Amino acid sequence: MRLAGKTVVLCVTGGIAAYKAADLTSKLRHAGAAVRVLMTESATQFIAPMTFESLSSNRVVVDTFDRNFAWEVEHVSLAKAADVFVIAPATANVIAKAAHGIADDMVTTTLLATKAPVVIAPAMNTGMYDNPVTQQNLETLRARGFHIVDPAAGRLACGDTGRGKLADTADLIWGVEKAVTPQDLRDRRVLVTAGPTQEALDPVRFLSNHSSGKMGYAVAARAALRGAEVTLVSGPAALGTPQGVRRVDVVSAREMYEAVVSRADAQDIIVKAAAVGDYRPAQTADEKMKKGEGDLSVELTRNPDILAELGRKKRPGQLLCGFAMETQNLLDNASDKLRRKNCDLLVANSLRDKGAGFQTDTNLATLLFADGRRETPPLMPKEELADIILDRLLMLSQSAR
Ligand code: PMT
User: Fold this and answer.
1) pTM as predicted
2) What residues have CB less than 8 Å from 207, skipping those under 6 apart?
3) Whose CA is nearest to atom 35 of ligand 1?
4) Which of 51, 53, 235, 343 is the most exposed place for a label (fewest CB within 10 A)?
5) Pocket, ligand 1, Cβ cutoff 6 A
């Protein structure tokens, strides 16, 4: 979570969803952000300022002419203090005012004065939301660089069904995080593989490995937050799809091969964090295999090597990042894979290092570059390592241009 230490100016405007801004305030505080709440007069009809004062530990400002005793012009000082400016819920009225530079209350005067990134989360009746005027106003704001967190569809408080429900708190937090994250991967298409593969022996048994998917999901999540268009090809994993990521579920190595190779050409960057089964049973029984008296031998056959195939087909300008999971001779094996599979970067991690590899929330890895450079960042959360991997890939793509 990159909101720690940030100041969020949260503006609550007058709609039934105003009560949901209380949860947002609480979650933002939980993420380490300082929250300063501004409310319109009409928002105070839906929820009391006291709620936000308790949750934010800060005084709520409603009246532009409120005397603040610090002898500061409050709307200017809050506009300057904001690392990010959020309007949630945003009514059709405040959206219209924002689009046209109208500043007639504390929320809109502060908005006009701020240089911080602005996040707008509309919530209103479907008819008001779908009205071309509102849509045009949102388009104006989008074109001006405002981050719009689209409302959800569903049954609304007014009884109508359609678009207009305030987005979930998790989506709002993601929108805020995205607004404070440099969009250095904007317009890049990134494909990430994650998790294990399962190779069926019969309808109830399979060969697999201990991959949880955490490393690959972290790369996908960070790439999406940094503005990339992300496809995550995932083996069976008990993890939620990261926000902003298109996920394609596969089970076996051959399914992963099809899903990845068919999409590969369209990608700028491919990161292969999945632990793909090198072998599968030569035969998959149609029915459950019955236990016999003696031992059982299973013949295994090779799976396609997806990374090697991607390395063969790599188009100019495309970057390929492989992983290597080893239990011995980590760097020798990894540099061999880097070369054989035509990777630009290889992330080598060892099952022997504490806190590294399968299932952990952290990883310790050495990054090997095609030109022979190596880098070993310290043990760190997988999200942080994901950012370093993406930073290095971005650097490689810029130096190739
Ligand atoms: O998922 P987690 O629990 O977070 O664990 C993370 C991880 C340990 C799985 C991850 O950090 C990692 O090391 N992933 C690669 C694991 C692996 O399969 O390593 P390998 O050395 O066997 O494979 C080398 C590379 O070839 C990998 O990029 C792999 O995706 C790819 N490969 C392997 C076999 C195959 N048939 N096709 C492939 O594309």
Assistant:
1) 0.92
2) 198, 199, 201, 277, 279, 280, 281, 300
3) 305
4) 53
5) 211-215, 253, 272-276, 278, 303, 305-307, 322-325, 337, 349, 357-359
Cα separation of 129 and 236, whole Å?
39
Q: Alpha-carbon distance 391 to 220, whole Å?
A: 13
| Contact between residue 378 and residue 364 where contact means Cβ atoms under 8 Å apart | yes
Ligand 1 atom, smallest distance to 213 CA: 1
**Residue 194 CA: which ligand 1 atom is closest?**
1
User: Is-contact 108 43, C-beta < 8 A?
Assistant: no
Asked if 307 and 272 count as a contact pair (C-beta separation under 8 A), the reply is yes
What radius of gyration, in Å, describes the C-alpha atoms of the chain?
25
Instruction: Give backbone dihedrals phi and psi of 286, rounded to 5 degrees, phi first.
Output: -75, -30
Instruction: Compute how many other C-beta atoms are within 10 angstroms of the C-beta atom of residue 26.
Output: 16
pLDDT band at 64 (very low <50, low <70, confident <90, very high): low
* Tokens 């805020």, residue located: 176
347, 365 contact by CB (below 8 A): yes
Strand partners for 192: 232, 271
Nearest Cα residue to 18 out of 123, 95, 127: 123
Q: Which helix (H) or strand (E) holds 169?
A: helix 169-179
pLDDT at 155 over 80: yes
C-beta atoms surrounding 283 within 10 Å? 11
Ligand 1 centroid to residue 9 C-alpha, Å: 43
